[in-house]
Predict the structure.
Amino acid sequence: MDFIRPQAAVLARRLEEPRRFIQAVAGPRQVGKTTLVGQVTQASGLPTRYASADGPTLRETSWVEQQWEAARLEAQDADRRGAVIVLDEIQKIRGWSESVKRLWDEDTRNRLPLKVILLGSAPLLVQDGLTESLAGRFEILRILHCTSRTPAWIKPQAPSAEHGSDDGPVGAYAEGSPR
Ligand SMILES: Nc1ncnc2c1ncn2[C@@H]1O[C@H](COP(=O)(O)OP(=O)(O)O)[C@@H](O)[C@H]1O
Ligand SMILES: [Mg+2]
């Protein structure tokens, strides 16, 4: 399957590979994150549990744990390619990153092939969790608005650059910059 955005191809490849990093799909609202992840997970053929924190009721970290436990059952039943959990709008849950860290690390210890995709708004995702709790455990896929000035751009993890504008010049992209 051909994907329009290069990020989709990257994500599809990550789902094919053995579980290694949490995939954090970050970008502004209405840019196509949920659609893209839905397309890629469907095309992967992997059993996928999708859950969004964007509901009328307030969600807490216990909700993350419930979703994760259900996805674990799917991963246990799956073949060695594993299963996927997608947590959308994760930044809406206070304290999400500590829960995700604990659950992710448990799966690592248990060698459970549950692949994890988090979606959220870029600045919140990064400020509230990725850089603190989840350092070294994630890879960011930045989804930007497609304009002639800023083509859809793959931006590997560069947390220090995350606070800038989404429409920043492409030249601001710095691969392998020292941490
Ligand atoms: N590749 C695309 N081409 C055209 N429209 C798209 C595409 N991806 C998403 N959309 C549309 O854009 C809107 C926002 O998409 P959505 O995936 O909900 O964005 P986000 O999750 O980033 O807020 C939706 O109406 C969706 O149908
Ligand atoms: Mg969405």
Notes: The chain has one domain: 6-160. The pocket of adenosine-5'-diphosphate (ligand 1) is lined by residues 4, 27, 29-35 (CB under 6 Å). The CA atoms of residues 55 and 90 lie 11 Å apart.
